[in-house]
């Protein structure tokens, strides 16, 4: 079996840094439906033009995979990969800010134009590899590319150019040699969308790592932790669950709590607060107050105070910077001692502020 050409791929940071004859060779090969092997930081991959059905069939045949088995779109940047309205966009951004370029494949209910042939039921796997030369090459191509690990189905992925050339021979137009894959382990594959947080393949990252990055620990702080902050906690849980498409916030890495700057432990929520939220199936009957102590503050990713006084008090207790729940910087007055209408107005104000914050969280 004839061996494909092995071409050196430098670790370039832009398409202009790559040899133009190399870029032209790869573009012509992929344009005509041939396959090319790329290096990544995890393993080597076999690449095909994503919008060419014949190329996809060839990749399936070379891999020995069924037509149902998915391939992953390899994008040059998060900006390219996440154009448009991505469901659960804040979670996706937190993951990609930390792990891209890198060993995380996200399977999202987001299919950009031109990638419909490689999507499955409205879901598409996408990744931004860390190898600079591969990213630069992808950035310079006028069409999208899907990649699958360089191995026959069921075998271990290959991690250097020579072994890829020997394994696949003339089935490839060329192999781009970027050196041995430094991680030598497949990427983690996470399906993330409304109602879904499923680690399909562990790879370099585990579920705990991904949940910790995707979700947030939110803490709402008022005075006694019996009316305003419990209502904020309950409403936040309710609104976040609606957007996640799941009542199980912890599955997506979220933890929502409340506390008070002058709270003692164990007091129940005010009956007015319990009665007000009960018709919305938000149950505050098992709430127990807790003080806004330093350990709780340090564990929170975001701390939201109901008034400026609360924020000022927390500044003396913790290095964590708290902010007002109201994005406009207004206080939310204490409804204690007021009737149902006062509590209802307070809850309405809290909910309006939470909805304004929701894009930051989910």
What does this structure look like?
- The protein has 362 residues and is an alpha/beta fold.
- The chain has two domains: 5-212, Alpha-Beta Complex (DHBP synthase), CATH 3.90.870; 215-361, Response regulator (Rossmann fold, 3-Layer(aba) Sandwich).
- Helices cover 34% and strands 17% of the residues.
- A ten-stranded mixed β-sheet has the order 1-8-2-3-7-4-6-5-9-10, sandwiched between helices. The chain has a four-stranded parallel β-sheet with strand order 12-11-13-14.
- Strand 2 and strand 3 form a beta hairpin.
- It is elongated and about 85 Å long.
- The model has no long low-confidence stretch (mean pLDDT 96).
Number of DSSP helices? 12
Q: What fraction, in percent, of the residue positions are helical?
A: 25-40%
CATH superfamily of the largest domain: DHBP synthase
Average the pLDDT over all residues and give the rounded result. Answer: 96
Using the 3D structure, state the CATH architecture of the largest domain: Alpha-Beta Complex
* Weakly predicted, low-confidence segments: none
What class do helices, strands and sheet pairing give? alpha/beta
- How would you describe the shape? elongated
- Quick one: CATH class of the largest domain? Alpha Beta
- The span between the termini is 52 Å
> Which sheet architecture does the biggest sheet show?
10 strands, mixed
Named CATH topology of the largest domain:
DHBP synthase
Strand order of the largest sheet: 1-8-2-3-7-4-6-5-9-10
Number of strands: 14
How many domains, in number, for the residues?
2
